Amino acid sequence: MKLKTILIKNANIVNEGAIFSGDILIEGEFIKEISESISAKSSDVHVIHAEGKYLLPGVIDDQVHFREPGLTHKGTIETESKAAISGGITSFIEMPNTNPQTTTIEKLEEKFKIASKASYANYSFMFGGTNDNLDEILKVDVTQVAGLKLFLGSSTGNMLVDDPKVLENIFKNTNLLISVHCEDETTIKANLETYISEYGEDIPIKYHPAIRSAEACYLSSSKAIELAKKTGARLHVFHLSTGKETELFSNTPLKDKKITSEVCIHHLWFTDEDYDKKGTLIKWNPAIKSKKDKDQLWEALLDDRIDVIATDHAPHTLEEKKNVYTKAPSGGPLVQHALPAMLEMYHRGKISIEKVVEKMCHNPAILFQIEKRGFIKEGYFADLVLVDLNNPFTVKKENILYKCGWSPFEGTTFKSRITHTFINGNLAFENSKFHNDKFAKRLTFNR
After folding, report:
1. pLDDT band at 162, cuts 50/70/90?
2. Non-local CB neighbours of 255 within 8 Å, separated by 6+ positions
3. What is the distance between the alpha carbons of residues 342 and 350, in angstroms, rounded to a whole number?
4. pLDDT digit string (tens) for 231-271?
């Protein structure tokens, strides 16, 4: 809903480690005032009564694959960003392994042009590194692009950066934040050959974490961190999946860290015990591993060795996912259900709402230096989410918004529901209904 002035009354406002009851006045794109009580000064003010609900900053998802251009049978920027805002994600950072890949300035700007017309949520893109595009990397404007993505394992096309000299050159020469996918390809190939020799192409899915093993993850992560320390590069390690990797990170204040990490929803929710029921629907790279690994990831998240919770949203069609092991792609859709899943963990006593907001809203904004987002502050963009913690819903085919039409959470009942999502001061989603207009903006970075 496009309105000049919105007043949210009597919300439980969650921000910077505190929850307090109050009102928020939105004028244009920005939060104008936050106070215990604000009166509507004219009949033009649209008042939203939020008694009993929680008002959060919009979630910033620092890792998604929205599949456009080139893979749009799986998803598009429009379909997946629409699903995202229904789940309280107001900004996303999308990855470069589309078709064509985002490894030139020209291809990067083409994606920004698509998003400017199609996206429901605020957007930025990672620029992709290869073994031979350092000249292009050095042309990237650091105030306009989220960062640089390097695949040190599990790449598509020519995006595996496996030349040590090239890697060190990139780390030494870019001022961009470097985000990495860490799995050692040599280890994985050797493991895969072992299982193919025994089972052929139809390897039981339960062996996925043995093939894409904890050793492969740790070997790659530790090498990337060693290189970052050597060169002074700013490094962010995506989707930790093992307890051992958490030992590589510190819990010093985020603002002082040069090496940071992320964990994804699926690694906090599922374990290898779920493969029997879910099969290749929960085939991800890195693989979902043991309960012990999950418990250690939770421990590191709560003691601040892990800085960010993201989705790694990566849709595939059901037909693709139902192939035999070696042909079933890795990845799954998550943006619609990520925040409800984390709020479910709040209901289970695993995490506080304040900590959810820290890891999903505040920290991505701090880590990527995103301008005026991720917090509920006067003068900041009004990217906000109203949540009803006691309004259960069950994930079913008919309420899944992903283009691929399925979810690994199908059949799960979540206690919490997103009722309103505001994008740049506009009411974009309200009680399961979307506004026809799109209010998204390109993210900018205070660097």
Report:
1. confident
2. 366
3. 9
4. 999 999 999 999 999 999 999 999 999 999 999 999 999 99
Could you confirm whether 312 is annotated as catalytic?
Answer: yes
What confidence score (pLDDT) does residue 399 get?
A: 98
pTM for this prediction: 0.97
Three-class secondary structure of residue 309 per DSSP: strand
Per-residue model confidence (pLDDT) at position 15: 98
Residue type, 346: Y
Contact 386, 419 (CB under 8 A): yes
Question: In which domain, by residue range, is 43 found?
Answer: 5-55+381-393+410-434
The dihedrals phi and psi of 373, each to the nearest 5 degrees, come to -140, 165
Question: 9 in a domain, yes or no?
Answer: yes
Average pLDDT over residues 373-399: 98
Query: pLDDT tens across 404-443, in order?
Result: 999 999 999 999 999 999 999 999 999 999 998 999 999 9
- Is the distance from CB of 209 to CB of 268 less than 8 angstroms? no
Q: What is the DSSP letter of 210?
A: H
Q: What is the CATH number of the domain that holds 425?
A: 2.30.40.10
CA distances from 415 to 9, 347, 387 (A): 23, 8, 11
Cα–Cα distance measured from residue 270 to residue 164, given in angstroms and rounded to the nearest whole number? 34
Query: Distance between CA atoms of 126 and 391, rounded to whole angstroms?
Result: 36
pLDDT higher than 80, residue 153: no
CATH code for the domain of 91? 3.20.20.140
For residue 108, give the H/E element and its range.
helix 105-118
Residue 11 tokens read as 């919300």
- Residue 39 CB partners (closer than 8 Å, separation 6+): none
106 assigned to some structural domain = yes
DSSP letter string over 165-183?
Answer: HHHHHHHHH--SPEEEE--
Which of these is catalytic: 312, 383, 388, 437? 312
DSSP label at residue 58: P
* Whole-angstrom Cα Rg for the chain: 21
Report pLDDT for 38: 95
